[in-house]
Amino acid sequence: MKVANNLLRPQYLKYKDEYLKKVEEVLDSGWYVLGNEVKAFEEEFATYNNVKYCVGVANGLDALILAFEALNLEEGDEVIAPANTYIASIMGFTRNGLVPKFVEPDEFYNLDISKIEEAIGPKTKAICVVHLYGQIANMEEIMRIAKKHNLYVVEDCAQSHGASLHGKKCGTWGDVGCFSFYPTKNLGGFGDGGAIITNNKDFEEEIRMMRNYGSKKTYYFEKVGFNSRLDELQAGLLRVKLKYLDELTEERRKDAERFIKEINNPKILLPAYQFNREGHVFHLFVIQVEDRDDFMKYCEEREIGLKIHYPQPPHLSDAYRYLGYKENDFPITENQANHIVSLPMYNGMTKEEVDYIIGEMNKY
């Protein structure tokens, strides 16, 4: 049996009629940028997350850049960030001249709260929290630390749409929450897209202006802004999918829980819930193995699709060589990067595919 690491087509086929109807509606409207679909999606996504404001933007990286722009920090100010994240989380604020202060992850792949305060210095002004792989970070403790040190909190929710802690969704704990709607995301569009949510009216107004060339009034410009707008077609399609997000998340949880319960192999370190099942939406199902090359060869022979999220931490990338980090500066992060593997995880996996993966994992 062949099992892909990720497939988008099964989910499209499930809601095909609704998607095509929405495409026709948008095309017939004759309005394709910043129209009624974007406005409706912003309202519906804000309601889903129980926040006052949502601003649609072009992609997840732009969401981060615009969020940090709204904080009005000074060049050279520092931002606490996870060392093991995808590089876009870091690009989201270094684009604004800010400097990362990396912190190692805990066993759940999120910021280790015991290491945050020791990284805070006089120039530290914010914390960038990434809810990696779909599991919400320990936001209660992070917010306690942030308030103690008067720090802004920006949440990178690109992988965690709908994850919650004590009934409060990711993206709503801090000052702003940033989302990506890249097609492979749990709430994915049919192209690029992103959004920012907040309860702060000043931030909302600044971000809304900056996404549109720095303009509040057509052809009049207050600042040097960006061209970062969620288009009507993506917004309309995301509105269709948003209705089913909780249902789709439950499908992922059930498949993930089967993996956790039924894969019984001491060679494979499985993920775990930090809080409860509502806290994890399983954007990815990440395991660790001692000999990754051997494991990947084993799975390739059995046609089980694997990926590595992510093989190179940001501090070791050429992009951030100027920061002066070297190997072994963040040993936990680097060890994870050498051993993590992502098993197949997507909506539309069949019972037979899940059975097959479990069986082959237990034979390894």
Kindly list the characteristics that best describe this protein.
single chain, 364 residues, alpha/beta, Aspartate Aminotransferase, domain 2, Aspartate Aminotransferase, domain 1, 2 domains, seven-stranded mixed sheet, three-stranded antiparallel sheet, 13 helices, globular, pyridoxal phosphate binding, DegT/StrS_aminotransferase, dTDP-4-amino-4,6-dideoxygalactose transaminase, transaminase activity, PyrdxlP-dep_Trfase
Give the count of structural domains.
2
Strand order of the largest sheet: 1-9-8-5-4-2-3
Shape: globular
Compressed to H and E, one letter per element, the order equals: HHHEHEHEHEHEEEEEHHHEEHHEH
Derived structural class: alpha/beta
What is the β-strand count?
12
Largest sheet: 7 strands, mixed
| The CATH class of the largest domain | Alpha Beta
Strand content: 5-15%
Q: How would you name the CATH homologous superfamily of the largest domain? A: Type I PLP-dependent aspartate aminotransferase-like (Major domain)
Kindly provide the radius of gyration, computed on alpha-carbon positions and rounded to a whole number of angstroms. Answer: 20 Å
Give the terminus-to-terminus CA distance. 16 Å
Mean pLDDT: 98
Q: If classified by CATH, what would the architecture of the largest domain be?
A: 3-Layer(aba) Sandwich
- Count of helices? 13
| CATH fold-level topology of the largest domain | Aspartate Aminotransferase, domain 2
Uncertain residue segments: none
The helix content, as a percent range, equals 25-40%
